[in-house]
């Protein structure tokens, strides 16, 4: 792992410090120990990265799709070869259990492989002409410099899901990784450099001042596309900042995912799906279950089995074998989770399990279950981002659809039923971009990922994921 722990930013093919020499510490959330320090970059470094990416774009855009595919495939191979070291680094700086981290590395690598293949399938069209003296065609061209602003909760996969299609399309990239997890970004770019990706094509700006760097990336006239994964309030700010230069913006924002279990569901399967969806990464995912709606007829059975399954989860350091729940990312996140639980109890929720910090360490929170939750409680309208289950009752299909949709968010939703007619009714009625139907794990590189309403715009992954990095040019040819 040591060879992949880097302490400098990466601009124009050079490993560089901040101009003023300032650094920001990267801390292991499980132990509180210092891992290393990275440059605390700001406006000047961000501008330099954009200029470097723009200069590199002039040549990168002229490479053939096959040439780009070959380089991306080399990068993919290096990621897979170094999967163990990357996973250990990911667990060390982010906290998730090693097994999850290793899965994320392979998941992240899959986007590089997928878009290496998609690079060769960026097709235009020949359009039947309305005028016999004309011929109509379209071609697709790379949009230009891309700003990829990524979160801390998936510090490998959220980079590859943006950088993979950008490079495949012929764009160049400036990455601003999450402030808590810059090391995975730097390690991934080191492997890209080893794969032969030319200088300036991928750049990384590390910082503790995301507003300063983000302002440059969102307003700079040479940046033509911003791809952001993070909170809805920050996504709205990015839209406003990008408006003056009319950039293309894609956003993957917050969620408030319902998990609905009908009375005809396979209860054991639903319990397993709910636990996986809710407690993966200690609940710190944008698509994890937020609100569990359980039908009255099976409520007691579900709760008994679910409580036992959650109680059995092992909390600890992610590098210790068998750990299933790691720490929250920082103390601020811990305090938010603790406050949400306390307020819910004060408003009438029943604490069934957990409800406090864990003895393992300062940023560990016990897997928690709150029953008797209603929509009148504050917690029903929050993205939890912690190991908290909130349990609601229901007994009517139309009512639960209304309640599930009663949120500004629309990223992911889940439901369990064995009624095929209900599957279609629910699939069409739920206002979400992604649905898990009798399934708690939904992410894959081959399917589109993204939300509706205030959960964002655009799609990542799949054949659709490259579209946001391309411009369609119409050619009208007189003959």
From TrEMBL:
UniProt xrefs under Pfam families: Aldedh
> Where is each Aldehyde dehydrogenase domain found?
15-474
The entry's active site is 252
Query: Which keywords appear in this protein's UniProt record, sorted alphabetically?
Result: Oxidoreductase
Q: Which domain of life is it from?
A: Bacteria
Task: Tell me its family.
Answer: Belongs to the aldehyde dehydrogenase family.
The protein here is known as Succinate-semialdehyde dehydrogenase (NADP(+))
Organism, scientific name: Vibrio ponticus
């Amino acid at each position: 792992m040591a060879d992949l722990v880097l302490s400098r930013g990466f601009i124009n093919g050079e490993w560089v410090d901040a101009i003023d020499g300032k650094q920001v510490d990267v801390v292991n959330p499980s132990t509180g120990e210092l891992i290393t320090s990275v440059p605390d970059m700001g406006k000047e470094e961000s501008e330099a990265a954009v200029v470097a990416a723009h200069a590199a774009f002039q040549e990168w855009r002229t490479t053939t799709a096959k040439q780009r595919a070959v380089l991306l495939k080399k990068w993919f191979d290096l990621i897979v070869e170094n999967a163990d070291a990357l996973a250990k680094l990911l667990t060390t700086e982010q906290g998730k259990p090693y097994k999850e981290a290793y899965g994320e590395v392979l998941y992240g690598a899959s986007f590089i492989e997928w878009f290496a293949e998609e690079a060769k399938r960026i097709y235009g069209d020949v359009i039947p002409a309305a005028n016999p003296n004309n011929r109509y065609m379209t071609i697709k061209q790379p949009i230009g410099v891309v700003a990829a602003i990524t979160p801390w909760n998936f510090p490998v996969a959220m980079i590859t899901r943006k950088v993979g299609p950008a490079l495949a399309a012929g764009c160049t990239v400036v990455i601003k990784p999450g402030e808590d997890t810059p090391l995975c970004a730097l390690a991934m770019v080191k492997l890209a450099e080893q794969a032969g990706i030319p200088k300036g094509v991928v750049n990384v700006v590390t910082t503790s001042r995301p507003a300063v760097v983000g302002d440059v990336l969102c307003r700079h006239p040479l940046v033509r596309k911003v791809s952001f994964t993070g909170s809805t309030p920050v996504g709205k700010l990015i839209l406003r900042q990008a408006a003056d230069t009319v950039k293309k913006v894609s956003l993957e924002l917050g969620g408030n995912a319902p998990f609905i279990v009908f009375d005809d569901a396979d209860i054991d399967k639903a319990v397993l799906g709910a636990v996986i969806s809710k407690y993966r990464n200690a609940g710190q995912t944008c698509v994890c279950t937020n609100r569990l709606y359980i039908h009255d007829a099976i409520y007691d059975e579900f709760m008994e089995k679910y409580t036992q399954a959650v109680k059995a989860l092992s909390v600890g350091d992610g590098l210790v074998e068998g750990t299933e729940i790691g720490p929250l990312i920082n103390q601020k996140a811990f305090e938010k989770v603790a406050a949400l639980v306390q307020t819910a109890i004060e408003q009438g929720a029943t604490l069934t399990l957990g409800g406090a910090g864990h003895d393992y360490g300062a940023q560990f929170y016990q897997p928690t279950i709150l029953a008797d939750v209603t929509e009148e409680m504050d917690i029903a309208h929050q993205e939890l981002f912690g190991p908290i289950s909130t349990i609601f009752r229901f007994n009517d299909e139309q009512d639960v659809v209304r309640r599930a949709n009663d949120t500004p968010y629309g990223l992911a939703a889940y439901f369990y039923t064995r009624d095929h007619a209900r599957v279609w009714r629910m699939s069409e009625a739920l206002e979400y971009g992604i649905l898990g139907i009798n399934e708690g794990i939904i992410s894959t590189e081959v399917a589109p990922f993204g939300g509706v309403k205030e959960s964002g715009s655009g799609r990542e992954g799949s054949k659709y994921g490259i579209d946001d990095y391309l411009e369609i040019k119409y050619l009208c040819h007189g003959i």
